[in-house]
Design goal:
single chain; about 325 residues; alpha+beta; five-stranded mixed beta sheet; about 35% helix
Length: about 325
């Protein structure tokens, strides 16, 4: 096939860096060679306290790989993704290879457009239920990428998971290293290219809720507000575990998030219980038999909030040339 236009790859890479990541650390880098884009884990941007094994960072890289793929497909290029293709290079998370031309579907174009509108909404959501047809669309999105989403209100796990969120938040509040790491990445200036600016944080909650807003993502300059009483919570699961499953879960998570954005929903993460060993072990036991939980999504209707910044593509991109 003819080499893709540079603008198509440029757009795909601009989409990739819009993926979500813990504290907006952006733990990825990309290598382009001819018709191949490699996604690499950037160890220097893995949270050493909250994510010492890189689980959340691999989710983020999986989300970036999905953005790459959906952007290429929306531009009429078939794109095949291989996850962790080289055992000798464990930080080579994914390889996206072009495989001819293919007419884009309306659904692919819709998701690609949502990439540049999706953002984490840390503010209160409306007391408005997500209708069954939309919930079904999000479940279908996860399945298409080899994952699944379980709604906790339908599974009986809502109360114990919410308790683990609060327990993890309390443990983290007493952990000086955790608080220092979170402080480094949050309350950034408005134009910061990474981290979470104060303007993108939520107001402090007016009274305790059933789930906790991450304390480091509160904007104390805003007046306290009531949060929704029982937000829709969805756990993203895979049937297996390990680094390969974490990357695939990131792709499933991102398709869910983009589908939610396209449907007019707001989303955010409740990552606390994945970031302390005690609560993570409890989560694993709680979901035993259902699958391996990778992330917890808060889903509902809200008002648009500020998008967080991203580093420019040229800072995370390498062009590899081969002699020939």
């Amino acid at each position: 096939m003819s080499r893709p236009l540079p603008s198509v790859f440029d757009q795909a890479l601009a989409s990739a860096v819009r993926a979500p990541s813990p504290h907006n650390t952006q733990p990825w880098r990309f290598v382009v060679e001819h018709e191949v884009i490699e996604v690499w884990l950037d160890r220097g941007r893995v949270l050493g306290v909250a994510d010492p094994h890189g689980r959340e960072a691999r989710l983020a890289c999986g989300a970036a790989a999905f953005n790459l793929q959906i952007s290429l497909r929306a531009n009429g290029l078939a794109a095949v993704v291989r996850l962790l293709p080289d055992p000798a290079e464990p930080d080579l998370v994914a390889v996206i290879r072009l495989d001819g031309n293919e007419k884009a579907t309306a659904a692919e174009r819709k998701l690609a457009e949502a990439v540049f509108r999706r953002h984490t909404n840390r503010r209160p959501l409306l007391e408005k239920a997500v209708p069954p047809v939309v919930r079904a669309a999000l479940k279908s999105a996860a399945l298409q990428e080899g994952g699944q989403i379980e709604y906790l209100d339908a599974s009986g796990r809502y109360t114990p998971v919410a308790s683990l969120v609060r327990q993890a938040e309390a443990l983290q509040a007493d952990d000086d290293e955790f608080r220092a790491e979170a402080a480094f990445w949050t309350h950034r200036e408005p134009e910061s290219p990474d981290g979470v600016p104060k303007a993108a944080s939520g107001p402090p909650p007016h009274g305790p809720g059933i789930v906790s807003l991450r304390a480091s993502h509160e904007n104390q300059d805003l007046p306290a507000r009531e949060y929704e009483q029982e937000p829709l919570l969805g756990a993203v699961l895979t049937r297996d575990r390990g680094p390969h499953a974490e990357v695939r879960a990131g792709m499933a998570m991102q398709r869910v998030l983009l589908t939610a954005t396209a449907e007019g929903l707001a989303t955010s993460f409740l990552s606390q219980p994945f970031e302390t060993p005690r609560t993570r072990e409890s989560l694993d036991r709680l979901f035993a038999g259902a699958g391996q939980p990778h992330t917890l999504l808060r889903i509902g209707y809200g008002y648009p909030t500020r998008l967080t910044g991203r580093r420019p593509v040229h800072e995370v991109l390498t062009h590899r040339t081969t002699a020939g």
